[in-house]
Amino acid sequence: MARKTIPRPTEIAPILIVDDEELIRDTLAEYLTQQGFEVNACNSGERALEEAARRPFAIALCDMQLPGMNGLALLDRLQQLSPETSVLLITAFATVENAVEAFQRGAHDYLMKPILLDEVAEKIRRLLAMRDLALENQWLRRELNRARPEARLIGSSPVMMAVLEMIRKVAPTRSTVLIVGESGTGKELAARAIHDQAGETSGRFLAVNCAAIPHDLLENQLFGHRRGAYTGAERDVAGVFVHAGRGTVFLDEVGEMALATQAKLLRAIEQKEVMPVGANEPVKVEARILAATNKNLMKEVEAGKFREDLYYRLNVVTVSLPPLRERREDIPVIVEHLLARHAESLGKRVAGVTHEAMQRLLSYRWRGNVRELDNTIQRAVILGEGPLIAPEDLPPDLVPAALDPAPSDRLSDAVERFEKAHIERILRQTPDKREAAKRLDIGLSSLYRRIDQLKIQP
Predict the structure, then answer these.
(1) CA end-to-end span of the chain, whole Å?
(2) What does DSSP assign to residue 277?
(3) Which are the contacts of 170, defined by CB distance < 8 A and separation ≥ 6?
(4) What angle (nearest 5°) sits at the alpha carbon of residue 106, between those of residues 101 and 107?
(5) How many C-beta atoms lie closer than 10 Å to residue 117's C-beta?
(6) Largest alpha-carbon pair distance within the chain?
(7) Is the separation of the CB atoms in 378 and 389 below 8 Å?
(8) Looking at the predicted structure, is the pLDDT value of residue 378 above 60?
(9) Which residue stretches of 275-349 are H helix?
(10) pLDDT of residue 406
(11) What is the pLDDT of residues 140-152, one digit of tens each?
């Protein structure tokens, strides 16, 4: 059955009716419109998929007997295209077998012909009420499912020590923090570290992925709604900002937020209040806001896709997470941590990684960063049969990208290769040689000498 994620206010998430009988289709459309729903009606499964591809629907009423694509085939396609849509099948010949198959394939309910309009309205209200309940509880379920006490930022490289020091300084404050970094670098872990070190043990940490929620639903999840705000809203529902109390609201991928919602977020930051959907008076909130993005928000501002005033409100303090390829010295300890975790969860005895396998892990580019490394280690633990992870347990496309094709085993050569890569990285980040030398903790003349000896291109 399709996972019900969050409730959808009917004024921004319409009802889809799919029936080739014009009288039934028009009657349902007229009745539901009178009930306050926004309705789209079409006469075929193919047309329904075109409509669903253009916009999300809260509920789809689909006739079982359609020309071309029948109702069950349309149900399957809708589950793939729009899993948040609740599907009610309409049938003239209901049997136990048909009903069981429909539910097994993802239908939420079915209607018998001749259709009773009051029954249609009641089923729709029930589904919307279930979605309201899901909104109120979804972040709590996500915390239970996703929270891992052992999940934390790991590393002792200079760049990671700088990140951890920044987190230590900013955590006790109530300042807004913007966490930036490529996908998979651990932005949510950084947010959790800030929250955990804040010293407010009673506060909740509630995460919202702005990229995973349709724009027209995000406002409802963040700010909540009032009873009667739309058809089916039978009780008040508090949003994330209210539920967090004096805890933390973490807005992941905030760069995906629509401009209209950005304006309301700005009010939450500046005025410490939110306006629930359908409310006449704002609600005071106390939650701390942490935001994360893998985008360059200043470029988004210049392109007119992100509010400049909101950018400066979010960017009070910036925590920048480095990609894994820029802190390769942390890979062995991260691998050790991931290996222990996955071996325990999978019930396998794995003592470590062979030298050859570690060399491949150290030399790979890791475009997916720590998340990709995590998946790689989990796969190796599953497939490995010996006490040590060997190269053959790693993905075949794990091709070295940083080391020479045939590196020497001599320690001095390995140190030299690492030193060259490390200096090149610092110079990419800081073209100013004097500043680069300061970060490397060497003299300026020593830096120029190493650039020449290591044949580093300016």
Answers:
(1) 58
(2) B
(3) 177, 194, 317, 319
(4) 80
(5) 14
(6) 89
(7) no
(8) yes
(9) 297-302, 308-314, 331-346
(10) 43
(11) 444 443 444 445 7
